[in-house]
Design brief:
Belongs to the YciI family. With 111 residues, the chain is an alpha+beta fold. It has helices at residues 17-22, 24-36, 86-95; strands at 2-10, 39-44, 52-57, 60-65, 73-82, 103-108.
Length: 111
């Protein structure tokens, strides 16, 4: 089963890419996901100030800067993994460093 892990955090305390690369906890998590052999893709997203939201209402395309939701926590990245079951996806999500101060939402892929 494929799962998308939505990595959510508060951007005001989010580490830089350099800090992530130097963080042994993050590197251990990444190595664990790769060791499991289920990693399909993963990518960090640019900050929400770089987001664009598109809505179509009554045939009119509305474009606005920034995220759709007004919230403190934002999706900062995603990882797609293939796991035997939800329990394994939960193990992977629980090991992500952001689960300690943000959250990791697990969503099954609809295939």
């Amino acid at each position: 089963m494929k799962y998308v892990l939505l990595i959510c955090d508060d951007e005001s305390v989010s580490p830089t890419n350099e800090e992530l690369e130097a963080d042994p906890v993050h590197q251990a998590w990444w190595a664990d996901v790769q060791r499991r052999g289920g990693l399909l893709v993963g990518q960090r997203l640019r900050p929400v100030v770089d987001a664009t939201t598109v809505r179509v209402r009554d045939g009119e395309t509305l474009v606005s800067d920034g995220p759709f939701a007004e919230t403190k926590d934002f999706v900062g990245g995603f990882v797609i993994v293939e796991c035997a079951n939800l329990d394994e996806a939960i193990e992977i999500a629980a090991g992500h460093p952001y689960a300690r101060w943000g959250g990791v939402e697990i969503r099954p892929v609809w295939e």
